[in-house]
Design brief:
The protein has one domain: Roll (3-methyladenine DNA Glycosylase, Chain A), CATH 3.10.300. Helix content is 12%, strand content 24%. The chain contains 4 helices and 9 strands. The longest helix is centred in the middle third of the chain and has 8 residues. The N terminus and C terminus are likely disordered. The protein binds a DNA duplex (13 and 13 nucleotides) through strand 3, strand 4, strand 5 and helix 4.
DNA sequence: ATTATGATGCTCT
DNA sequence: GAGCATCATAATT
């Protein structure tokens, strides 16, 4: 019998998604932030061919005090006002880059984690380690070499690619991480059962029907 | 296992 | 000067 030792994690194989997945277009991204955040779970994100399957997202709405767009356009957040499908990149805590895809009406979806699938060796090299390659927004950006120079680019065009999922995933929801305002909104979404999450989704964050928006979350009290 | 803390740069008050 | 949509390391149960 085994001791309590945890088994080393097998590294992910290359391209299971294959070339058959449809590439998402700007029109696919023109959704309210809460819907887009769910729509992107299971989608493959690549930057110059390096990336994997999105496993965790967070939605930030226009009328959401936790959102960078809440107080209107500024130099930093101008990409959030560039229309759905734009890339919004900002620096976090002075050290890390965070990658967002802009949703409808100056909302955005923070891509918080993905399952490495393509270019894993390069991701390891950039991260300087073999595990925890893209679980967490700062780690993800480092692994994909995303930085401020990508701000304002089109998420559906080179160097980026979004390849659609082939099946509707089961999605968990929970409170967003690292914010102090609007803590009550369960706008963090994760692929059910995935180990590629920055943190587990707390129990009680019940599964929701994949990609079905809940209107009651969309309006402010 | 969980909690604390320092690093670091930019935007807005 | 305050406050971050964070992460890695160290200290502590």
């Amino acid at each position: 019998m085994k001791t309590g030792q945890k088994a080393p994690l097998p590294e992910p194989p290359d391209p299971p998604e294959g070339p058959s997945a449809r590439r998402l277009l700007t029109g696919d991204l023109d959704l309210p932030a809460v819907e887009l955040a769910q729509r992107l779970i299971g989608v493959m994100l690549l930057c110059e061919g390096v990336g994997g399957v999105i496993s965790e997202t967070e939605a930030y709405g226009r009328d959401d005090a936790a959102s960078h767009s809440f107080r209107g356009p500024t130099l930093r957040n101008r990409s959030m006002f560039a229309g759905a499908g734009a890339v919004y990149v900002y620096r976090s805590y002075g050290l890390h880059w965070c990658f967002n895809i802009v949703a409808r009406d100056a909302g955005a979806v923070l891509i918080r984690a993905l399952e490495p699938r393509s270019g894993v060796d390069l991701m390891r090299q950039r991260r300087g380690r073999t595990d925890h390659l893209a679980t967490g927004p700062g780690r993800l950006a480092q692994a994909l070499a995303i930085n401020i120079r990508h701000d304002g680019h089109d998420a559906t065009a080179e160097p980026f690619a979004l390849l659609d999922r082939l099946q509707e995933p089961d999605i968990l929801m929970g409170p967003r991480i690292g914010i102090n305002r609007e803590r009550d909104r369960p706008w963090r979404f994760g692929l059910k059962g995935s180990r590629w999450l920055s943190r587990p989704i707390p129990a009680g964050g019940e599964p929701i029907a994949a990609s079905v928006p809940r209107k009651e979350w969309e309006s402010l009290p």
